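Budget justification aside, the reviewers requested a transparent look at the raw inputs and outputs of the sequence design task funded under Objective 1. We therefore reproduce one unedited record. The lines immediately below are the structure tokens for a 241-residue chain.
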């Protein structure tokens, strides 16, 4: 059994993934952005989950969480599930936070990042990006960037399994009640990639939809764009991979 961090697990797909992983016997660390939302995780804590709390719009909070986790039992996998659809928090939460956790956490051999079909509408340009969330960010751009981060990790860290998952447009708080995709299938692929020993789950650099590997935006596998993105994130955060 594995020790797995699921970010953004107070509700939605993150909560469903954490619940399923606990039920499967894994050692799960759940995450909420504040104490009020963390209280809603008590049922998982009673079943053995640990909790970390911190607002991913705040870089110091992300760094504190990474330090807490590095001082605890080593993680085997991270599901980077936390995300926001719109507003100033898009870039801080959707790309800066997972980048910082990737750079700072020691030990995880499996990294699973939540992407989206919206990444196909992202622009492979870093000009004028507001990484600090002082203005409204582009969700599509943020998901293109995080999917590119996955491909860069797979190239630069061959000993780590790094994959992106498109969960589909599912009826969560973010997706809305009329979303057409299957909520159950929306969280199964990330659980599988984080914990399964099936041969397909032990591959890296994939963009997955319902356990089927898909072709992402062509910019994702552009190594020059990957390198530009990593340089920009390292300069912005003062933290290199």
């Amino acid at each position: 059994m594995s020790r797995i961090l699921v970010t953004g697990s107070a509700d939605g797909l993150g909560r469903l993934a954490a619940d399923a992983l606990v039920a499967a016997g894994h050692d799960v660390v759940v995450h909420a952005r504040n104490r009020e939302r963390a209280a809603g995780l008590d049922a998982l804590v009673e079943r053995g989950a640990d909790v970390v709390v911190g607002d991913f719009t705040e870089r110091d909070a992300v760094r504190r969480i990474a330090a807490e986790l590095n001082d605890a039992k080593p993680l085997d996998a991270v599901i980077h599930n936390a995300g926001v659809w719109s507003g100033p928090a898009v870039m801080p939460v959707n790309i800066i936070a997972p980048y910082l956790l990737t750079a700072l956490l020691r030990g995880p051999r499996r990294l699973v990042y939540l992407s989206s079909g919206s990444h196909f509408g992202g622009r492979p340009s870093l000009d004028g990006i507001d990484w600090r969330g002082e203005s409204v960010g582009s969700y599509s751009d943020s998901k293109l960037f995080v999917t590119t981060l996955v491909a860069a990790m797979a190239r630069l860290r061959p000993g780590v399994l790094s994959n992106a998952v498109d969960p589909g447009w599912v009826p969560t708080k973010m997706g809305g009640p009329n979303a057409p995709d299957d909520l159950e299938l929306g969280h199964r692929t990330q659980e599988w990639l984080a914990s399964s020993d099936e041969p397909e789950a032990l591959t890296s650099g994939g963009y997955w939809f319902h356990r089927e590997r898909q072709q992402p935006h062509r910019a994702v596998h552009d190594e020059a764009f990957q390198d530009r993105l990593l340089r920009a994130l390292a300069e912005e955060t003062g933290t290199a991979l």
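The two ends are 27 Å apart (CA to CA). The helical segments are 12-23, 35-39, 42-46, 59-70, 90-104, 139-156, 183-195, 223-237. Computational costs for records of this kind are itemized in the attached budget.
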